[in-house]
Amino acid sequence: MALGTIGGDGRTTARxxxxxxxxxxxxxxxxxxxxxxxxxxxxxxxxxVLIVDVLVDGWPVLTTRLGGFISGTLRSxxxxxxxxxxxxxxxxxxxxxxxxxxSFPIGIASAIYLEEYATQGRxxxxxxxxxxxxxxxxxxxxxxxxxxxxxxxxxGESTLFAGGITLAILVLPIVVITSAEAIRAVPSSLKQGxxxxxxxxxxxxxxxxxxxxxxGIFTGTLxxxxxxxxxxxxxxxxxxxxxxxxxxxxxxFSPEQLDDRFTAMPIVIVGWVQEAARDVGFAxxxxxxxxxxxxxxxxxxxxxxxxxxxxxxxRG
Amino acid sequence: xADIGIESQPILPLRGIxxxxxxxxxxxxxxxxxIRFIFLLAALVSxxxxxxxxxxxxxxxSVFAFNIDWRQTWGQIGWFPRQGxxxxxxxxxxxxxxxxxxxxxxxxLGLGSAIYLSEYASRRTRGILxxxxxxxxxxxxxxxxxxxxxxxxxxxxxxxGRNGWLxxxxxxxxxxxxxxxxxxxKLIKREIDTPLSTQLVRVAALxxxxxxxxxxxxxxxxxxxxxxxxxxxPFVKRGGQLAAAAVGVGILTIPLVASVSEDALASVPQExxxxxxxxxxxxxxxxxxxxxxxxxxGIVAAFIIGVSRALGETMVVFMAGGAxxxxxxxxxxxxxxxxxxxxxxxxxxxTDNVVGEGLTFQSLYFVGFxxxxxxxxxxxxxxxxxxxxxxxx
Lengths: 316, 393
Hints:
- The complex is a heterodimer.
- By secondary structure, chain A is mainly alpha-helical.
- Chain A has a domain at 89-264: MetI-like (MetI-like fold), CATH 1.10.3720.
- Chain A is built from 13 helices and no strands.
- Chain A has helices at 4-7, 10-21, 27-64, 66-71, 86-117, 122-136, 139-151, 160-184, 188-196, 201-230, 233-238, 265-275, 281-314.
- The longest helix of chain A has 38 residues, at 27-64.
- Chain A is globular, with a radius of gyration of 26 Å.
- By secondary structure, chain B is mostly helical.
- Chain B has 2 domains: 19-59; 68-158 and 235-392, MetI-like fold (Orthogonal Bundle), CATH 1.10.3720.10.
- Helices cover 74% and strands 4% of the residues of chain B.
- Chain B has 13 helices and 5 strands.
- In chain B, strand 1 and strand 2 form a beta hairpin.
- In chain B, helix 3 (88-120) crosses helix 10, helix 4 packs across helix 7 and helix 7 (242-266) runs antiparallel to helix 10 (296-312).
- Chain B is globular.
- The interface between A and B is large, with 107 and 109 residues.
């Protein structure tokens, strides 16, 4: 019986003919296409609504006192003239420095090892499994690691140093995976050409592999940096300050604050959102802080995405 | 020497290679080995981090497990860490609700976006719309927390109300029944003379599906009913509720589901589409009957990775989940609650110092350990599915 349909009774033939000749009025097909497009449309619409909502909420602060907002500090009243995000900006800047100094070199070096040096074996597959699984660990668990490693060993004092290293660890697998992808895309003819004129492995990596993979590596590192700047959960666990941080008279670059309590842009936002339950004015401040954070993060992501598509096009 | 031209006219830009270097291979080999060792050390950092994560979780979680009175972790009225009550079902059910609702948002929207981008969009449209989706992927979770609390909760969830929920619930139930029915029809249609064991498995699957459907209907009706009366326990309420937070988490998960599913769709060989078109199939038939079944492992992987991501999302629920510090047990998305992750974040901010205070510090690691095991398991399963796609094509 199962074969009966293939044998071709009149019904099947008619159906096939209908399928072939009713091209112009494919209602089912076009409504499916519209449905799929609307899924994408809704996702993009949500992004637009989100940006508009944040802009509307933050507008009063952004337009009346942007300069003071950027140089101000955490305060207990939303009407305080000195309310602002300078401490958050300083914390995020330092976190970025930690990521650049720790995750980038270690991540790129691991990627080089995995793609250029590693031979198949237990060690390589262990490294591979470790990196893959680390990439899927929820960020809050990295916060637990940071708490365990740096805060409990420091008499429960949370420091910027602990927060910075925790986030550097968090983005390390992203740097490794994206850099490894970029290195894998280097054509082997380039490498073989270099070997052919007597280059050693390190010469090949230095003069051929890295320059070719640079745009891809740069894209990956930029994405990981923006991820680190936007991340809040691990910092909350490590003990970033959500309420108030005594303003100190020093430059944001002074390294002595590494041993001090700290906050960061996303943490400032969380704190103000919580304060908004008590003092509604903080919602506007949080909105304005989000606009500042989003401008930085979206700018970094856009540069990364554009750079990638530019090089994808150039190299066909 | 000059006519070899290595020193005077390098063929490739290989700075640092000289005749002298080539002539002393021992020194070169030593240098190469040293460089290799440095790179190996960098690669070992990841293993060290993995071990440290497992070590820290297991160490503190085991302290919790050995010292806690287990009656405090099951069947209690809620999650009240300051009173020493760590009711796991409270945080597990909240996590389940948030993850489930988030996937109801992210699953269809992510997969739909992927199908459009991969099968329908022209090169130009794709070039414009895909980066927009990638920008959504880069939005920090605190921003979604703010959006969920100040927009989704008052403008979407609270406006929805009881009737809106009943409509959504009805759609859910009908969709579920339709999926199960079409699946059963396919099973019955295909082969008549199946072995008994397979048929038993099918009967079991059918029973399970029907039972799950009944639970789904019961839950939809229960959530639509009046909520429990406050029991007077110290229950710090904030704005927001699990549903708003869950939709926020869902929005965060859309780009992830979309990009993994799109990779799966893109890995389906073009020949399959051409063969289908050659047989006279329309685009929709090709997409639904040929491309989607061929990419099904990758799509399943996308959903599992999405679930894992939603389960681990912290800030959105912490900010907009409607509960601080403590939460009563609830199975309704329209009440405040703490997921596993939000409970951890609350513990860490509740006092200036999590260290001390009985077992609160250790409970953090216990919850973290449960979360770690769950997400790791999901990621490993997802990895298997992704590998299946790779092997197939």
